[in-house]
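Thread: quick sanity check before group meeting

JM: Hey all, I'm pulling together slides for Thursday and realized we never actually wrote out the predicted structure for the chain we discussed last week. Dropping the sequence here so it's in one place. If anyone has concerns about the input, flag it before I start.
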Amino acid sequence: MKEVVELLNKHKLEETIVKQQDMPEHALVESLMYKRHQEAIKTILKGLHSADIAYILESLPVDQRLSLWEFVESALDGQILLDVSDAVRETLISCMDNNELLTATGQLDTDEIADLAPDLPEEVMEELLQNLNDQNRQRLQSVLAYDADSVAAHMDFGMVTIRADTSLGVVLRYLRQRGELPEHTDKLFVVDEYNVLQGVLSLKRLVTNNAEQSVASVMARDIVFFRVNDDVEEAARAFERYDLLSAPVVDEQNHLQGRLGIDVIVDIIRKKSDEERLSEAGLRDDEDLFSSVWKSARNRWLWLAINLITAFVSTRVIELFDDVIVKIVALASLMPIIAGIGGNTGNQTSILIVRSLALGIINSTNTTRLIIKEVVIGLLNGIVWGGVLGLMAYLLYHSPGLGMVMAGATLLNLLVAAIMGLSIPLIRHRMGLDPAIGTSVLLTAMTDGMGFFIFLGLAKLFLDTPH
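JM (edit): ok, ran it. Output follows.
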């Protein structure tokens, strides 16, 4: 990557210098420079995998990204568009004309075209459909008809099907004649004459059993499969649970429609993980790191505004007790401790809940038990750490009352933090919203505001005179 960046910078610098010089045959010199740098960059790119080129493109500012994109071989354009993030793909497609897009996507498989379809201009998609044969056109249209979060939207059609009454020797000869197998093929799908899934034959069983045996005698009938309308995140969890490399996808009548591969599942898991990390901070998952300042700023406004409002609420809480703070100055230095430990406890609980919701662990049968457990943990932590903080406050300020207030406020705020850490993601999930989005922002606001209110309220009740 470093070599590519250096070449791009050198090319830009020399181009700027040439443009500033008053010389004959200016255009010829500029053209020769361009070709020299183009060949150097192409030589580097030629030895790279499409995923590596995609990584470099994502790591470059927009102007350098578009410059490098011009040097990429057109044969790799389609695969690179699949490998880059959604935001980067948008910038690359915006600088390509329809003919370039048709050339790039025309080299892709049907399921890969479906992945790019939401980002392609309508006229490009129409022409692509016209250029496909009847079978692939029907496949593409059927995939696009499903919800983006369904298994069908992510399945591919690269699979090998066989019949149950065939011998293993015949299957082996068929595979040799066929030559290359679809990527991540670990099993063959057994179907009947109506394309109804009967079972699967693993390659391991195929090569370790007698060639005279029939497929029916060695195939697995109790198999993991998915239906076209299943949620793809549920499928990803099943892949993890059963250590799958591939799995068949069927319709409601058990007709084989396609398969899910581990490569797709890994992409889904990674994307979901990235989304959750960004969502916890109230950020959108489709932001390009090198997008314009204006676009990036707008992306962060909503939750910054919410954070600002909640911060003002917290200041109003403090103002309600300004007479107490004036009398007991120690309260001002102790307040951040109460808010900080509450926020940390709440975040621990919320992260655990968000993760459990993502894995599908939490359901209606165990929610009550989980709530009780987390409240008890909050109570236990409150007693232990409230006692520690109360003792520290007493030793620092020699006030038994202040120590008791500190201990009580810590206990109550940790209970509040545990309840909020549970409630916010669970309520958002129940409402059909992403439980990760903005949870940390809302949680911090609640633990800060309640922490100040509890601490200063207890101080006003029990320490309303200077000590």
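AS: nice. The chain has three domains: 2-144, 161-262, 293-462. The domain at 2-144 is CATH 1.25.60.10 (MgtE N-terminal fold).
JM: adding both to the slides.
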